[in-house]
Amino acid sequence: MSAIRGEKNEGTMTATNDRGVTPKGELVWIAGGEFTMGSDRHYPEERPARRVLVDGFWIDRYQVTNDDFADFVADTGHVTVAERPPDAADYPGAIPELLVAASMVFVNPARKVDLRNHYNWWAWVPGADWRHPQGADSAIEDKGDHPVVHVAWDDVVAYAAWADKELPTEAEWEFASRGGLDGAEYAWGDELNPDDRWMANTWQGDFPVVNEGLDGFEGTAPVGSFPANGYGLFDMTGNVWEWTADWYQVMREPKASCCVPRNPRGGEVAQSHDPDMADIPIPRKVIKGGSHLCAPNYCRRYRPAARMAQAVDTSTSHLGFRLISRA
Question: Bridge partners of 106?
Fold first, then answer.
């Protein structure tokens, strides 16, 4: 990768890429080490808990914001996946009316719905993109410090190349998220609300109908609105999910070995396809961290061990990213 030049001070660095552009914010040095990755106590896809080792790396203190992404677009002219109509050849049998520039947007249902069907609150909205997070009539003029959303895999890869950085692996992301609290339930300890404090931007109330907003926000929040973890990183829990570099696969019990795996990577691209969509084999990446839509009655994924699969061609209103440097 291209070298990042920057000023380092007490474990932080302000990055400057090879073109002298500095919109990417502050990076924090993570020394690396051994930790327990995953969990045996929650969702099946998090199992098994296993010991792994990661080397040191720099990571963004904050999620990439709308202002950051606007600098990238102004410099490169990048057009996001959500702003381009899908190619019909990639989606055999698709309804023509759906082959338009669009993205997935969370829409509150008016009444209680079947939680087994996520289409009860997700809608394919034409005109929704990073500049228009709720649809064509919405805007981000007052949300420059909110995390950018509606970015698909190709978009985050393009941004990373421009910024001379990389996407973290799942192991790197989880190690950083834990903030030094190996084995803790949350990024801040074992209580969801220590001393009755809200520690992350999540959902309070009866998802997906009622969000009581007890944490002060409905929808995304400005980055850094909640306490940092032990490494000084903000929003490693909640606000928006974050892309990682790993292809998604179901975890398996590790083979017996004398050594702790070092810098583990995810599965192969062919293993990442959704088995329920065999006719349209879209690869999937691991996303981490949960979002403002995670709620106790539905999605308890506001934990470092939690993980989900995300199709690389799809962007949503609750998914963003942050980057690392191994330079």
Answer: 122
Residues 6+ apart with CB under 8 A from 128: 82, 102, 103, 104, 105, 134, 135, 136, 138, 150, 317
DSSP code per residue over 158-176: HHHHHHT-BPPPHHHHHHH
Prediction pTM value: 0.91
Block residue for tokens 């609290």: 181
Ramachandran sector of residue 147 (left: φ over 0; alpha: ψ -120 to 50; beta: rest): beta
Amino acid at 222: P
Q: Which residue has the tokens 């941004």?
A: 159
CB distance 213 to 237 below 8 Å? no
Strand-pairing partners, residue 110, are none
Report d(CA 16, CA 209) in Å as an integer: 44
What pairs with residue 287 in β-bridges? 243, 308
Residue ranges of alpha helices (H) inside the chain are 66-76, 153-163, 170-178
Residues of the chain predicted below pLDDT 50: 1-10, 16-24
Cα dihedral sign, 90-93-96-100 = negative
Ranges of beta strands (E only) in 40-92 are 50-54, 57-60
